[in-house]
What does this fold into?
Amino acid sequence: MDTITYETRDSGVAVITLNRPDVLNSMNPQLLDDVRAAIRMARDDSKVGAVLLTGAGRGFCAGADLAAGFKAPDASTVGDGVAHGMEIGFNPMVREIAELPKPVVCAVNGIAAGGGVGLALAGDVVFAAKSASFVQVFGPKLALVPDCGVTYFMPRLIGMARTRALAMSGDKLSAEQAADWGLIWACVDDDKLMDEAMAYAEKLASGPTEAFGDIKAVLDASLDNDLAAQLDLEKETQRKRGNHPNFAEGVSAFLQKRAPNFVR
It folds into this structure.
């Protein structure tokens, strides 16, 4: 994996670092493939309980690498090339991060622009350094629409009015404002970003991984379900979770006034 680094910690955290700092970790086809491969490795490793995603250098991710061009099938248009790249690379990557049945913590260490915003928001818990910012360059700079899930995540997190204004203006949203609006979990001092994000990821990695995966699933389903359907989903998910050994361990630990010892 030439465009990222991947390491697993004894604490159960898999750390994925975008590693194209000379171009602010912009996404080319190789990086998309490498991130997807790393997500699969984390998914399949029973010792991994959580993922921490960040970027090397002074930026998190500047979006798509426009210098990479838009390779498309023969006799197709430029637009076909753009859509083809989304179909085979960007969209599967975002889905695989969002649907990973393990918690994903993102540490945004600088600019998140264009598709880099969607990449960050695909995570479950987002920390950002005070110097970081989020900017949608699609419309005002490229005459495109936001992608990488930005049009899905942003309205649900901060509302349609703010999302429309940011998408059309291309104005930078500071990390502090993003936290105040609820776009991200926390804005922290630059020199504390990785320590705080790692501590949070380690906390999640020590917990009941399968239960966290189910929490992600039921929350995602709530966006489309009515109340009755959501209550039924909660009931059936609790049926499954109640039959798992971790529930019995959690009850025993509670009654014995000790910390639970969950299995992954």
Notes: The domain at 4-205 is CATH 3.90.226.10 (2-enoyl-CoA Hydratase; Chain A, domain 1). The longest strand covers residues 13-18.
